[in-house]
Design a protein that fits this description.
InterPro entries: TPR-like_helical_dom_sf. The chain is an all-alpha fold and about 90 residues long. Helix content is about 65%, strand content about 0%. The chain contains 4 helices and no strands.
Length: about 90
């Protein structure tokens, strides 16, 4: 599975557009299977966090993904995003 070091991606400034862009790209990576397996739960997680940081496109894609996810998948994605946010 591909890994991306978010600590090196400029996460010192809360809500910066750079943060949102990096998080959006993580969502795209998992949504499309770029350098990893497709993982819609992870994609939703990263789109959700990017949307919170200000990415309108991430919010749109998050909604599109959610429409095709089961309730347990969606719950896991939301829980994972919440856990990540509390740690960063």
């Amino acid at each position: 599975m591909a890994r991306y070091d978010v600590q090196e991606a400029g996460f010192g400034t809360a809500g910066s557009s750079t943060q949102a862009d990096v998080l959006f790209q993580l969502g795209m990576m998992y949504a499309t299977g770029r350098d990893c397996d497709v993982d819609l739960v992870a994609a939703h997680k990263w789109f959700n966090i990017a949307a919170i940081k200000g990415s309108e496109r991430a919010a749109e894609l998050r909604s599109e993904l959610a429409a095709g996810m089961s309730k347990p998948e969606l719950a896991r994605a939301l829980r994972d995003a919440r856990e990540w946010m509390t740690m960063h």
